[in-house]
User: What shape does this take?
Amino acid sequence: MGRGIVCECAGASACPDGSNNGTCTTQVNGYCFATVEEVETEAGLVELERTAGCLPPDESGFMQCKSSQVPHRHPKVIECCNESDLCNRRLQPRLPTYLSDTEPPGLEPAGDAGGGPQPSLLVAAALGVALVAFLAAALLLCRRRRRAGKRPPSPPHPHPHPAAAEISSGSGSGLPLLVQRTVAKQIQMVESIGKGRYGEVWLARWRGERVAVKVFFTTEEASWFRETEIYQTVLMRHENILGFIAADIKGTGSWTQMLLITDYHERGSLHDYLQTAVLDPPALLAMAYSVVSGLAHLHMDIFGTKGKPAIAHRDIKSKNILVKRNGQCAIADFGLAVRFVAERDEVDIAPNTRVGTRRYMAPEVLAETLQVTDFEAFKMADMYSLGLVLWEMCRRCAAGDRAQQVEPYALPYHDVVPSDPSFDDMHAVVVAKGMRPPLPSRWARTPALGALAALMAECWHHNPPVRLTALRVKKTLAKFHADCDVKLV
Assistant: This one.
């Protein structure tokens, strides 16, 4: 297929591509979809709602096309097609009659006699499956209890998000997929709190909790899909990585929204926080340690049956790091991330037209010499960007009574490139001239600032193999903490 296909956009008054003719156009190899689901009105009545629209490539599996999705309360059926323009006009998904509140199980609907398996047989089969599942769960529970009796109990570990803990999948990667698909209808948007090149971030409420909802532009389907894919990686959850709750595609009847729902941190991004905050050395070290801990977990591969692949971020910057209430940080925005697939010994790079932030690009990225088949090269590019973030943080650290000497907040290379530097601007400074951000002389007089200055200089070294790894930086900061008795976390 050389182009996208045209799809019906149900109730189309504002379709994603901006047309007003009730259609939208997919990307190459995209899908048209139609859904029918039960929705509850404000009056408490249950109605059937049909929506239709466009899906990006590879979404058919995620949305479980041509299958019935049956949450506890309101069933939903999704069907997809991509054989011709407007193919979803003929799609008329139907809810299974035995799931309807008005059709009790065991009664055959009129007009369906002899047309398929009897509902009573389906009910019997379902009961048999449920019985097998119950016995399997009971056996698994007994085995776990026997194992637990052989080892000392672990200390309690708080879940990053109370609501997510309630129905977590257990993999550490957010809610079960079926539950995720019902979340969008339970979200109440409160206010817009930020905009970027990918879309807009909203403060919202879900089950009484404050959450952040990232609403992607329709042109950023690849970023939404990639970020969802990365967040759902097994063992991805970490206290210094933004807590993922759910991803959903929400059809409003006239257009489609791609949502990413995460924990909400009221202090905002590190970039915004440093504009006004002044850090003392312990706070600086704790914040730096939390950032590098998150990056070390991301870069780490965990082997095993349910292992975690090594992941490189590719867009580390202060705007993609959030500040938590306890002063630690959480790394966010994984729309550009790449994974290393150890089984195939290859780098999994998402088909994404976005590039990283030019100001934070490593010399080898600017010089276009980065070896895209070498996963270590992506990790070392992350380390260069981390060095620049540490520089931003150190400028806002006051030592003793010398608070007046704190440098004003500034972005890296603020004094040598424009506010929105081009690729050539950054290449001329970072590659051609080999410049790096200046280190104020006062930093050498404060142990914490001096230690971080030495680390950042090794992180942004021109030669990638010479740069420190995230784990090495983390261990160095931990040793500094032990030697100086500075509380890091």
Q: What stands out?
A: The chain is about 30% helix and 20% strand.
